[in-house]
Every structure is written in C-alpha cells, then in structure tokens.
# Entry
Amino acid sequence: MRSKCMTKKKKIIEIAEETFRELGFERASMGEISARVGGSKATLYNYFSSKEELLFEVVFSAIETEFNTTHALLADAGEDLVSVLIAFGEGLLNSLYTPPSAIEVRRLIFAESRRSDLGKICYERGVQRSHAQLSRFLRKAMQQHKLRETDPDVAAWHLYGLLDSTLLRRCLLCVQDSVSEEEIQTAVRQAVAVFMAGYGTPA
# Structure
C-alpha cells in the first residue's frame, strides 16, 4: 500500500512540475493539476494540503539527492575543517543555482511569499532543516577547538550569507540567469576564507 501511495505521489509531482512550467504558479490551479493526474481534487489534497506545498515538493524532489549528500558531509568535522566547509558550500550552491530553472524558481518563491505561504513552507522545510544541521556541525567544531567558541546558530547564518553574497542579488534581480561551476567555486572559497578569518582559532 505504501509503495502504491509513493508511486501516486511521484506521478502527481511529475505532472505538477509540467503544469507549473507550462502555466506558471499563479495560473496552475489544483483543479487543473488534478484533472491532468486523472483524479479528483479531493484526492490531490489527500497528498498535498495546498498548491504551495505541492510546489515545494516539486522543487525539493529535483535537489533532494544532492541536498542529502551535501548535508551528509556535516556528519563529522574531520581533520580538515576548511575542506569540509568548501565541499558543503559547493554542494549547497550547486543545488541552489545549477539545476534547470533553479534561479527562476528562487525568484518565484521570493515573489510569491508576500501572497501565500510558499516562503514559509520553504523556510520551515528547507532552510531550517539545513540550518539545524550546519549549526550542530559548527557546534561540534567549536567543541573540538577548530572554531572559536560562540553561538553556532549565528555562525551558521553568517556562513550562509557569505556563501550566497556574490550571487544572490545578481540572480534575483535578473542581472544574470545562470551560474558557472567556476563562479560557484570562487564564491565558496572566498566565503570560507572570510568565515575562517572571523571564526577560526589562532594557529
């Protein structure tokens, strides 16, 4: 039974993605999606409580594997903290900027957040999940004296801000529509260098 439900959910996500791409978020109604799936709107709501939740699942399903792989790097601080932070940063930025339509989707999320719960859903199910794992990792690094003792929650927000600092505004404001691997690598190395200058312990 569970396998049947998962198959149905996957089909809904695939059709919803096609519908969002074709019609846009605003015009793609739950009624339209349920008609394309071939069932009732009530059945669709059994799987997803809102169109916003459904869009989040569409977005996250595209990056879920990379998200999990990237955050698995935070299981252990290891011997070389800088290398772990660089690998994490590159994985994070790749998931945010390199999948097809990733930048356009981020623009959509920011734009729709004033009109719906889409931003809140993405924050609670994506951003907060990631932040909690990064904060725990940084706390452990502090306990191992690889970083200076401070609030790991704040340190995690600072690292996120540094990682996204050179790309976010250009992409959200439509100055650029794609990001190269070289740009990501440069942004990450610069961010980690500044982060370690502020939070690292004296040699």
